[in-house]
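U., I forgot to send this yesterday:
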Amino acid sequence: MKRPPAIWRISTGDKARAVMPEAELVIFEPAKNLYGVVVSERTTLAADAFHASVVDATPGRKLPTQPIQLVEPALVSGADVDEDGASLRYRMYTMVKDGRGLKLMFWGTRGDVERYVGELDAAARGFAFDALPAIETHAGAYLDRRFGFDVDVPARWSFVDQSPKGSAAIQTFATWTHGPSLMGVLALELPVTDGDWFLDFVEQSIRDQMGPMVVGQARRSEATLGGQPARRLSWPELDAYVLARDGYIYGFITTADAPTSQAFRFVD
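Result:
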């Protein structure tokens, strides 16, 4: 995504997620006291249905939806909220392209949003869908922008994409081998709201699939993957890590003589 005009202060990564867990950017215009968040997500919804889902999730009295031309055809709505003696207005822009939805939500006092609606429209026009490839592979690295991670890959290791056909929008499973050595990474959209239950399911699936390949029972411990708390399953010759983050499940598998979990990183 491109940034809006430079008058906006921009926070990313953990600072953005501290404001809203799914936010990619949080923006603030201090001179005009306007705030905003940017969220990009996969969606199977058409543009109008995606916009309606955003409007429905926004509190307050809804204002009419209108089409607006940003860098892509978009929709914009508003909502008025009276909160703690203050009259707030939200202004929500959405775009959908190639299975991804972009949500831009701005807010401030009702008077400020009305006064500076032109500046908000200009900021919204500063955002666009990247034309960058979803996956990049080159010597020493594998970058997956769909699921937000990269992996350091040793030279001369063989790569195989083992993802089921037609599943690129919701999951990926990639492996690298060199002789008997193995490294693999898994990412998939969390299909249920109970993340802990699905982590248990994934953990048991790993145990079942690894059973014929390893000796003995796995030892479970707490660890980190990409700087985030993770479950670790350890066999003498293999380690598997699994965690839930931002609505997705991530897994990393490595044999004893392959790169460690430090090879995996989240990319904001």
